[in-house]
Every structure is written in structure tokens, then in C-alpha cells.
Design a protein that fits this description.
The chain is of the alpha/beta class. Helix content is about 30%, strand content about 20%. It has eleven helices and 14 strands. Strands 1, 2, 3, 4, 5, 6 and 7 form a seven-stranded mixed beta sheet that branches. Strands 10-9-8-11-12-14-13 form a seven-stranded mixed beta sheet, covered by helices on one side. The longest helix is centred in the last third of the chain and has 17 residues, at about 325-340. The model has no long low-confidence stretch (mean pLDDT about 90).
């Protein structure tokens, strides 16, 4: 089986490194020889159903998982495409009682009319899918990608995007996606922490919002199974799904569940009381037995910094498009002074304001550049 794992473009190297973790149990030959950049994901090969389940339940960076349906084929004409569709094993994934959503993209191909491609695929499915009344409530999403007259079909294995993983999450304005918060964590190198030998690790988010960044630090520290905010995944509705094996996999993973390491201290602060309330509720919902790992403070970041121990890591998503310009510029100036005053802290900042570096009056290095809700952003760290 081949899978396509999607991720925010330009973050592919982080996903590639994440998949090398033993918990995914992937062979080196399953991963691409060359890490693609700015393509929004990459393919993994020669994997089993259990590999797919592990990716869905353990990757904190992937946005979606799609299964390649059949081999890619040449499609220089509609006749050629319609003929090739007869060789696709649709019955393993969907039935005629399903009403699949179909998304088509075309680049440098003769079949450039995507709506016409979509119509041909829909007609073929209606005429050729096997019937299965017991699966009447199933849903599916098919992707057809045409590149240089070569067509590759895929089917979504998950449903909702995988960043929607927190059940009943309390949110504040413009929340940061969990997958992007996880990317920030990976950029700090935190995921490689050896808890048997390390001293206490303290993480501080002075603009915590709904607590997404501290929560990702907590989740990555445990390595536990991710239970996402959805009743079921698309793959559970496929005719070929092995429900007994999947249940066994989930039970086995639950036996490995760990608490947040005692050496990890998470400090969340914000000047907005609504943010502190949301963060507190989210932490209680996700980690009810780890209150000793978590501290929350309402107040200005300069005042709260007095309570942050030496050697801590400050990882935060600064405001960069919501407040009035003069407010933001003043926050940036004061934050720059904090960085200068506390050289003992390690700073990682998600920034989307082009004036940030000038206002802080200190040099920054770019750790990563990508897009957050269509806005170009960077993860920055002070130059040393």
C-alpha cells in the first residue's frame, strides 16, 4: 500500500524526521530518498494497514492521510482515462451507496478541464461500484491529480483534517492549528529530550491563547495515542477494513499510555482572562492527572517573566494581525527588551509581522517559513 501524507508546505523535512521515530515502525525504504520541499507532503510506500493506523494516531504534524488507489496511469484523453478507471480496485474502499466527494487538480496536462474530469469519474463510479446497502451512511473523498498527463487517484483515509484532534476544545480568537504548534515544538528539538538523564525542562508561553503550544509540548512528551475529535475515520467505513485488528491495535496502544514526565513544567500566561480560562479547561480535559506539570498566570509577559526559572524555553505565537498597529509595535519593543534582559532563556517565536524584527532591535534567525491561514509566517530564534 502507498500513502500520501499531507503537511503545511515547507514543513516536509519535519514530517520526514518525525516518521523516523520507532513508534511508526517504518522501514527506511518506505520513505522517499529525497525530501520534497514546498510540495505539501510526500508519499510513503510498502506499508500495511497498521502502519496507516500508526500514522493517523501518532503523527502530530501530518494534516491528512490518503491511500493511493491503484497505480498512476497515462491520461492524455478522456477515453484513455475512462479505460484506466476500469482497473481501479474501487470495491476495496467505496460502494455505490456512497456519494463520494471528488476533487481534481490538473497541471501541464491535456485534460485541463477539472469539472469534466470530475464528471467522468462520478459517472464511472455510479455505473461500476458494487452495491452494499449496509454501508449507506459511509462517506468518502476521492482525489484525482493530473501532472504531465499522468493521473494518480487517492482516497482520504481520515475525514477531517488531522489538526482537529482536541475533543471539545475551548478556543480563543484566531487559534493556532495544533499541527503548526507541533512544528514549533519540533523546531526546538524538544522531541529528542531524554527524560532519564535530563534536568527539569520548563516551557513558557507568554501569549498562550487557548494553550495550543503548551498542550503540544505535553502531548509530544508522552508519545500517547492521539484521539481526534471525530466519531470515526473514513477508513473504518471501507468494505476491506479489518475492525477486529484495528480494535486490537487501539487496545495495545492504550496499554502504553504514559503521564507527562515529572521533569516537565509548563507555564501558560496571557493578559486576557478568557485565554487563561480556555487554557485551563483544555489542559484539564486532556491531562486530568497532570496538574502538577502545569502552571497558569494571568498578566503582562514582562511581569510573569519574573516567575520563569533560568534555562527555560519561551515558545510563543505573538500577536501579529489582530491588534492595532501601535499596540503590536509596543509589544514587539518590550518583547525585544525581554530577550535582551533574559539571555538565559531560549526563545522561539512564530511571527507574521514584517516589522517585528525592526521593533525588537535584535537580530533573529529564521528556523522555518510557511503559511498560517494564508499569511506568510516565520519561526524565529535570536541569533547567538
Amino acid at each position: 500500500m502507498r500513502l500520501f501524507l499531507s503537511i503545511t508546505p515547507r514543513l516536509e523535512p519535519l514530517l520526514y524526521k518525525e516518521l523516523q521515530s520507532p513508534k511508526f515502525n517504518l522501514s527506511p525504504r518506505s520513505l522517499p530518498y529525497i525530501i520534497p520541499e514546498n510540495e505539501g507532503g510526500f508519499e510513503v510506500r510498502d506499508v500495511t494497514d497498521e502502519h496507516m493506523w500508526r500514522l493517523i494516531h501518532h503523527s502530530r504534524l501530518a494534516e491528512s492521510v490518503r491511500v493511493r488507489v491503484g497505480d498512476s496511469f497515462k491520461a492524455e484523453s478522456f477515453a484513455e482515462m475512462e479505460s484506466a478507471l476500469n482497473n481501479i480496485p474501487w470495491g476495496d474502499f467505496i460502494t455505490r451507496t456512497s456519494t463520494p466527494k471528488i476533487s481534481v487538480s490538473s497541471h501541464k496536462s491535456r485534460l485541463y478541464h477539472t469539472d469534466a474530469v470530475k464528471e467522468r469519474i462520478a459517472k464511472h463510479l455510479n455505473q461500476n461500484l458494487p452495491e452494499d446497502p449496509s454501508n449507506s451512511e459511509s462517506s468518502s473523498h476521492i482525489f484525482a491529480r493530473l501532472e504531465n498527463d499522468i493521473c494518480q487517484l487517492s482516497i482520504d483515509a481520515t475525514g477531517d483534517l488531522l489538526h482537529r484532534r482536541t475533543s471539545n476544545k475551548h478556543i480563543t480568537a484566531s487559534p493556532l492549528r495544533e499541527t503548526l504548534a507541533a512544528a514549533m515544538v519540533h523546531l526546538t528539538g524538544f522531541q529528542d529530550t531524554s527524560w532519564d538523564s535530563s534536568d527539569q525542562v520548563t516551557i513558557w508561553d507568554p501569549f498562550c491563547g487557548s494553550g495550543t503550544i503548551p498542550l503540544e509540548f505535553a502531548g509530544i512528551s508522552t508519545g500517547n495515542l492521539i484521539h481526534r475529535n471525530m466519531s470515526s475515520y473514513h477508513f473504518q467505513q471501507w468494505p476491506g477494513h479489518r475492525s477486529d485488528e484495528y480494535d486490537r491495535f487501539l487496545k495495545e496502544e492504550e496499554t502504553k499510555k504514559r503521564k507527562i514526565p515529572k521533569k516537565l513544567k509548563l507555564i501558560a500566561s496571557d493578559i486576557d482572562p478568557r485565554a487563561i480560562s480556555a487554557t485551563s479547561r483544555n489542559f484539564e480535559n486532556m491531562f486530568p492527572d497532570s496538574a502538577e506539570n502545569f502552571a497558569k498566570f494571568r498578566g503582562d509577559f514582562e511581569k510573569i517573566s519574573e516567575f520563569v526559572p533560568r534555562g527555560a524555553m519561551c515558545v510563543t505565537n505573538l500577536p501579529y494581525g489582530i491588534r492595532e498597529n501601535y499596540e503590536v509595535s509596543e509589544i514587539f519593543r518590550r518583547f525585544g527588551k525581554l530577550v535582551q534582559r533574559r539571555p538565559d532563556l531560549r526563545f522561539f517565536v512564530l511571527n507574521g509581522n514584517s516589522s517585528f524584527q525592526n521593533f525588537t532591535e535584535i537580530p533573529w534567525k529564521i528556523c522555518a517559513s510557511f503559511s498560517n491561514r494564508g499569511l506568510p509566517v516565520q519561526v524565529l530564534a535570536p541569533k547567538t
